[in-house]
Specification:
There is one protein chain. Helix content is about 85%, strand content about 0%. By secondary structure, it is mainly α. It has a single domain, classed as Up-down Bundle (Growth Hormone, Chain: A), CATH 1.20.1250. The two termini are about 15 Å apart. Helix 2 (about 15-40) packs parallel to helix 5 (about 85-100), helix 13 (about 255-280) crosses helix 15 and helix 17 packs across helix 18. It is globular, with a radius of gyration of 21 Å.
Length: about 400
C-alpha cells in the first residue's frame, strides 16, 4: 500500500505533467522578454512615432495599469474553463500585440496596443503559476516555484541578448516579432499538457461563484496585496535606478553598466532557484526572511562600494536576496489561495502589488535629490526590508498543502 506522501506527490498524468511545467515557465520568460524589449528600444520608438522619449516611457505606466485587469479577466476564465485554453489565449493575445507595437500607424494607436498588451501580460502569471504548482510533484514545488520566477530575470537577459544580436542584423522591429515564434512553442507545449486534476475537482459552477469566493477571504486578500506591494517596492527600489546610480554616481560607461546588469541578473536567477528550493524544507516564511537578511547584509557594498568589484559583489548578492524572495512567491501564493480561484486570486494579488508598488521609483529618485544616491537607496531599502520582515514573520503559511486535487 502506498504512503500518503507518495499519493500526494504523484502527478495526475506522469508522462505529461512536464509539459505543464515547461509551458508555464517558458510563458513567463516570454512575458518578461516582451516587456523589457521596449525598454531597450525607447529611442527608436520615439523617433518612429515622432515623440519625446518621455512619451514612450509613459506607455510603460499604461501597461502596468492594465495588468490587474488582465489578471482578473484571464484568471476568471482559467478558474471557470480550465488552465490550458485561457493560457494559450493569453500568451497569443499579448504576443500579437507585442508584434503589432512597432507597426502602429500613430502614437495613439501605439498606446492602445500597449494597454491591450498589458491586459495579456497581466493575465499570464496567475494562470501560469497555478498550472505549474498544481501539476508538479509536491516535493519539487519549491524548486519549480523558483525556476518559474527566475524566468522573469531570464527574460530580461534574453532581451539584452536580443539587443546585441537581433537588432544589429535584422533591425529593432524584429525584436518584437520574434515573440510570435516563442508564443507558438508555448501554445504547443500547453496543448500537450494535462488539465490539472485540482481544477477539475474544485471547478466553480459559474462566474458568480468565482467572484464571490475572494470576498469570503477579504483579510487574506488584503494582507497578500500589502505584502506584494512592499515586495514590489523592494524589487523596483533595487533594480530600476541602479544603472543610473552606477553611471551618475560612479561614472561607469554604458558597457560596464550593461555587464554589471547581466551579472546581477544572474544573481537574481540563482537566488530564485536557491530560495525556492530550500523553502520546501525550511518553510516559505523562513526562506523569505533568510533572503531578506542576505539583501540587508549586501547594502553596504551595493550602495557604498568604493570600487567596481565591491559594487559588483554587492549588486549580485542584493539581487540574489531580492529575487530569492520572489522565488518563493508562486508556491506561497498558490498555497494561500482558495482552491476555487487559484488562478484569479494569486494573479490579481500579484498584479495589484506590482501596480501599487510602482511609485517606489519616484520616491527613491526624490530622496536622491535630498540625501544623495547612496543614502536614498539605503534608507528606502532598509525601511522596506524591515516592513517585509514584520509582514512575513507574522503572516500565514500553508507549506506542503495538497494542490494536486487527488
Amino acid at each position: 500500500m502506498k504512503s500518503q506522501e507518495q499519493l500526494i506527490d504523484k502527478p495526475p498524468l506522469p508522462s505529461r505533467w512536464g509539459f505543464s511545467v515547461c509551458s508555464g515557465i517558458l510563458g513567463w520568460v516570454l512575458d518578461a522578454f516582451t516587456f523589457f524589449i521596449l525598454i531597450f528600444v525607447v529611442d527608436a520608438l520615439a523617433k518612429n512615432f515622432h515623440v519625446d522619449k518621455a512619451a514612450i516611457i509613459w506607455s510603460i505606466t499604461v501597461t502596468l495599469a492594465t495588468r490587474p485587469v488582465g489578471a482578473f479577466l484571464f484568471g476568471s476564465l482559467a478558474d471557470r474553463f480550465g488552465r490550458r485554453r485561457p493560457l494559450i489565449g493569453c500568451v497569443l493575445f499579448f504576443s500579437v500585440f507585442t508584434a503589432l507595437t512597432p507597426f502602429a500607424p500613430s502614437y495613439s494607436v501605439f498606446l492602445l496596443y500597449r494597454a491591450l498588451y498589458g491586459i495579456g501580460m497581466g493575465g499570464y502569471w496567475g494562470i501560469g503559476a497555478s498550472l505549474v504548482m498544481e501539476t508538479s510533484p509536491q516535493r519539487w514545488r519549491g524548486l519549480f516555484s523558483g525556476i518559474m520566477q527566475g524566468g522573469y530575470s531570464l527574460g530580461y537577459l534574453l532581451a539584452a541578448v536580443a539587443m546585441r544580436t537581433i537588432e544589429p542584423r535584422f533591425g529593432w522591429r524584429w525584436m518584437f516579432l520574434v515573440a510570435l515564434i516563442i508564443a507558438g512553442v508555448v501554445a504547443l507545449l500547453t496543448v500537450l499538457a494535462p488539465e490539472p486534476a485540482a481544477w477539475k475537482k474544485n471547478r466553480a459552477a459559474s462566474f458568480a461563484a468565482i467572484l464571490r469566493t475572494p470576498l469570503q477571504y477579504k483579510k487574506e486578500f488584503l494582507y497578500l496585496v500589502l505584502f506584494m506591494t512592499v515586495l514590489t517596492c523592494l524589487s523596483h527600489g533595487t533594480q530600476d535606478l541602479y544603472p543610473d546610480f552606477l553611471k551618475s554616481a560612479h561614472g561607469f560607461s554604458t558597457i560596464v553598466v550593461s555587464n554589471l546588469t547581466i551579472l546581477y541578473n544572474v544573481g537574481a536567477i540563482l537566488g530564485c532557484l536557491a530560495m525556492g528550493h530550500i523553502s520546501e524544507r525550511f518553510g516559505r516564511r523562513n526562506s523569505i526572511m533568510l533572503a531578506l537578511v542576505i539583501s540587508a547584509l549586501s547594502i553596504p557594498a551595493w550602495a557604498f562600494g568604493s570600487s567596481l568589484v565591491v559594487l559588483a559583489l554587492g549588486a549580485f548578492f542584493m539581487q540574489f536576496g531580492v529575487q530569492g524572495v520572489f522565488g518563493v512567491i508562486p508556491a506561497h501564493l498558490n498555497e494561500l489561495s482558495p482552491d476555487r480561484v487559484r488562478s484569479l486570486f494569486p494573479g490579481v494579488v500579484y498584479q495589484l502589488g506590482m501596480l501599487f508598488g510602482a511609485p517606489s521609483v519616484g520616491i527613491v529618485f526624490a530622496l536622491r535629490n535630498k540625501m544623495g544616491y547612496p543614502w536614498a537607496l539605503t534608507s528606502f531599502e532598509v525601511c522596506t526590508i524591515v516592513v517585509l520582515f514584520i509582514l512575513c514573520g507574522f503572516g500565514p503559511e500553508r507549506r506542503a498543502r495538497d494542490l494536486s486535487g487527488s
